[in-house]
Amino acid sequence: MKRSRPKTVLVTGNAGFIGSHLTEKLLADNYRVIGVDNFNDFYDPKVKEKNVAAAKKNPRFKQYRTDITDFGALERIFEESEIDLVVHLAARAGVRPSLVYPRLYQKVNVEGTVNLLELTRKFEVGRFIFGSSSSVYGEQKKVPFSETDPVNRPVSPYAASKKSAEMFCFAYSKLFGIKTTVLRFFTVYGPRGRPDMAPYIFAKAILKGEPITRYGKGDTSRDYTYVDDVVTGILAAVKKPFDYEVINLGHNRPVKLNQFIATIEKIAGKKAKIFEQPRHPADVSQTFADIGKAKKLLAWQPKTDLETGLRRFLNWYSNSQP
Ligand SMILES: NC(=O)c1ccc[n+]([C@@H]2O[C@H](COP(=O)([O-])OP(=O)(O)OC[C@H]3O[C@@H](n4cnc5c(N)ncnc54)[C@H](O)[C@@H]3O)[C@@H](O)[C@H]2O)c1
């Protein structure tokens, strides 16, 4: 029987943490992947080179080193490639640096997204998946956070940029019939985790016996979600188009920062030396995903509990050190 051509997925941010895992899963599932990433130095670009090393060996993979704010360069990629679906993950991530570089966050996260939506429309790609964030829920007290909750009170430029990008996704889907799924990720951790995020910073310091800076008393909580679970959710969204949906991908098991640190201590067999600083105003007090919609629409259920995920993460971290 003749096999149909694999679908071609353009993944932006493919050299990053989540994007590189997604790319490998798509390739394993017989998709063609076109990666677009500018390998910027938000963290060491050598880490990103390592992230794409396996994918580069696959003939169904093509890498473009392109900035998503460069509309002309992006347009050439769309001209050269027959794209069936865009999964847009490239962004300036991280809440705290967004207070230092708000204009950059706006440019990459909002303008970059509009560039991709505009080309999706122009080249009649028809489908778009956007990697958004739990940060759009802001300092919301009502838990769990559900997709129908109002999200008009972002407390950082990063959150505001993600919410703005979501609104452009909605407008483009309504105006041009682009089938769009917005996925809101909740504190993703795991192998290749971002070096600027708490799981990486804490694991590194505790393993090395160095002090950690904890902002606040440790009573803020996060719905830490293991990267493989998030990628399974993105793949489910790749396979099931919707006219327009917003879907949370979170673990639905929030954990307080102190409990998170204690779990790393238990796995590492070492006590953390904690150095306390006041809480940062852009850090929200909690995140907690209602995942009823993901279960219903994507048949998605996170499978990795925090201790299992952190064990894998610490293992990866220890093995990845020179
Ligand atoms: N990791 C999390 O906990 C988390 C939580 C919520 C949302 N998200 C979102 O998920 C997506 C992926 O996050 P991640 O944790 O893998 O981050 P990451 O920084 O590891 O990956 C983002 C990638 O985008 C690329 N990129 C940034 N600016 C670019 C530009 N102008 N042009 C081209 N490429 C550019 C970077 O080089 C990087 O490889 C982001 O949109 C992020 O906002 C992540």
Note down, in words, how this protein is organized.
- The structure is a single chain.
- The chain has 322 residues and is an alpha/beta fold.
- It has a domain at 8-188 and 225-250 and 289-302: Rossmann fold.
- The protein is built from 11 helices and 13 strands.
- The protein has helices spanning 17-28, 45-56, 71-80, 97-100, 102-122, 157-176, 198-208, 227-239, 257-268, 292-298, 306-320, and strands at 8-12, 32-37, 61-65, 85-88, 127-133, 179-185, 188-189, 211-215, 221-222, 225-226, 244-249, 255-256, 273-277.
- The protein has a 7-stranded parallel β-sheet with strand order 3-2-1-4-5-6-11, sandwiched between helices.
- β1, α1 and β2 (32-37) form a beta-alpha-beta unit.
- The N and C termini lie far apart (48 Å).
- The model has no long low-confidence stretch (mean pLDDT 96).
- The structure holds nicotinamide-adenine-dinucleotide.
- Keywords: NAD.
- Residues 10-312 form the NAD(P)-binding domain.
- This is NAD-dependent epimerase/dehydratase.
- It comes from Candidatus Beckwithbacteria bacterium GW2011_GWB1_47_15.
